[in-house]
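Structure (tokenized):
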């Protein structure tokens, strides 16, 4: 496990230094998920939904897979509820994180505990029994996630195989596929996406490089899928606060372009509880602290990207209600 000395030294190197140079007040990474220190600066409509969070339970009850990218601290349902009370959020979508693999117990238990205001996006494979899919559907699951980016899958042919396999499994359940990938994969598989019998959802601006903005190769394919209504996209990217200043303009440019293409296919999410960047040589088995991200500050970017309150209601309320069945 990470020692106290290592934690303090790393905090100084990865947290405060990165944000202080951008003029943002910041505290060191923490073992507790961050809570907002400011309030939303606009009227958050009733029924607003955070479409991308993760829950991390006690390790002795919800074990991590042996092959994982990092080891997180806990992030509980009660802590998530506190976050959403501060933000004025009424609904939530809990996304299965990579470190649990295909064991969806923590995600599904969280959704069950929150009831009708919560939905789940799960991870499955060819060994997941049909009875488990049906059970998860009854208890709030509405889609599956293909986490290609975290798994390091960058080959279009391999991506297509994973996609086709997932579609065959979920089609009878009326679910959608949520894809964590990058624009070049989206462009390579665009013809597949155009003809799939299920809806597609792309994480975090489709994985686009904010330094390139709308000029990132493949972003035009994402834009077209959104425009034609074949896909939803989440304008969620909490690494806004851990990049150089030119990236801020790139995210704003992409958000505005996606909303203009089709405001009925845009979703918003926090990506709470925000794992920290892995330092060079980090041992995946060592505890990786959370970033100190103020999600209210992130949320307050939304009216800068879309000043029309009616369109923001579509993004925060209407679109997730339609897609996730609230």
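Design, position by position:
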């Amino acid at each position: 496990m990470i020692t106290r000395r290592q934690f303090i030294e790393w905090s100084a190197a990865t947290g405060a230094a990165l944000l202080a140079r951008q003029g943002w007040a910041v505290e060191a990474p923490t073992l507790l998920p961050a809570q907002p220190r400011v309030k939303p600066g606009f009227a958050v409509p009733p029924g607003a939904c955070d479409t991308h969070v993760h829950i991390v339970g006690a390790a002795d009850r919800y074990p991590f897979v042996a092959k994982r990218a990092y080891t997180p601290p806990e992030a509980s349902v009660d802590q998530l509820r506190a976050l959403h009370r501060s933000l004025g959020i009424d609904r939530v979508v809990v996304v299965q994180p990579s470190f649990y693999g295909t064991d969806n117990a923590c995600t599904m238990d969280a959704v069950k505990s929150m009831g009708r205001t919560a939905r789940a996006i799960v991870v499955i494979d060819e060994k997941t029994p049909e009875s488990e899919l049906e059970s998860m559907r009854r208890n709030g699951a509405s889609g599956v996630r293909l986490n290609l980016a975290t798994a390091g899958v960058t080959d279009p042919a391999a991506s297509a195989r994973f996609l086709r396999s997932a579609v065959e499994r979920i089609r009878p359940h009326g679910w959608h596929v949520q894809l964590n990938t990058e624009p070049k994969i989206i462009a390579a598989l665009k013809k597949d996406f155009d003809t799939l019998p299920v809806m597609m959802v792309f994480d975090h601006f489709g994985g686009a490089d904010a330094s390139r903005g709308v000029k990132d190769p493949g972003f035009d394919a994402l834009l077209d899928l959104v425009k034609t209504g074949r896909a939803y996209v989440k304008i969620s990217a909490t690494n806004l606060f851990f990049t150089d200043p030119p990236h801020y303009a790139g995210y704003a440019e992409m958000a505005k372009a996606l909303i203009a293409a089709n405001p009925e296919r845009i979703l918003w999410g926090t990506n709470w509880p925000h794992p920290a960047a892995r330092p060079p040589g980090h041992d995946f088995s060592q505890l990786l602290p959370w970033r100190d991200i103020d999600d209210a500050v992130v949320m307050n970017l939304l009216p800068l990207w879309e000043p029309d309150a009616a369109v923001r209601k579509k993004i925060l309320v209407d679109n997730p209600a339609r897609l996730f069945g609230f």
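Reviewer-requested clarification: The chain has one domain: 4-15+54-324. Residues 79 and 173 are 31 Å apart (CA to CA).
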